[in-house]
# Entry
Amino acid sequence: MSAAPGTQVASRRFPAWFWLSLLTIVLWGAWGLQSKLVVDRISPWMNQVLFPLGLLPVMLAMFVSKGFAGGHNKRAGSRWAFLTGVLGGLGNVAFYLALLKSQVSIVVPLTGLFPLVTVAAARLFLKERINRVQITGLLIAAVAIYLLSL
Amino acid sequence: MQNWIVLSSVALVLWGLTGVTQKLSTNNISFQRSFVWFGVAFFAISVVLAFARPLQWDVAPGVVMLATLGGLLNGLGALTSFAALEAGGKASVVIPLISLYPLVTVAGACLFLGEGLTIRQIAGILCALVAVALLSQESPPQALSSPHKKDL
# Structure
């Protein structure tokens, strides 16, 4: 059975990465709600220690999945993935320490602008280029993140 | 310079760099394997933290469950972000896009926790929706170049 023409146009118009990104927004949005519930009941350090317990079932599911074996340079890819976790975790530690020394209303909007660093680093290291419409979107996203973080 | 500015800047840079390392990872291995190694690093940091900082271990089981749920939700989000990058999304588009997740948090807090929306948050939501629309405007791929697929 072939897809309706409208569906084909829609899937071309919005590629898989876009839908996966929207799914990430929903999951992390729900995580943000959970953070609101947990923040007064546990220290950020203990939260960070317990956090990986939630990763465990997903890690196990990925470990036994067919896709786990995929890839052409497992050593390099695994190193980059591990580094992603280290940078993310250390970023969290620096963030919590900053919160101890200043106000949430200052630290959160400031650190929320990290995608601007990603764009600069991606241009430098990955030679990525984005078009003018996306640059406009990026700037508006930075404003949105700032406003939503206050 | 004040300490908090240095620490906030460190967080800003480290989190910013994760977008690039994520992309470099999925350029070489599957998102499934990427996620497993990402999780291993978080376990390593937890072990270091558990020894390095005095922690209050008598946490109620319900709170442990809530904190674990946070890890699960964040982990699933990290997994889909790895998948988005593996599916061809550029780090410089995917990362700003997924960083708009406070949009859902603010809307969810309004719907489920009964929190009111400020004018500033409404403006933020509107900006976020415009940003999503603009960031999705990918140029058609060019036949002879794929700059975001560079392996290091």
Notes: The CA atoms of residues 23 and 29 of chain A lie 10 Å apart.
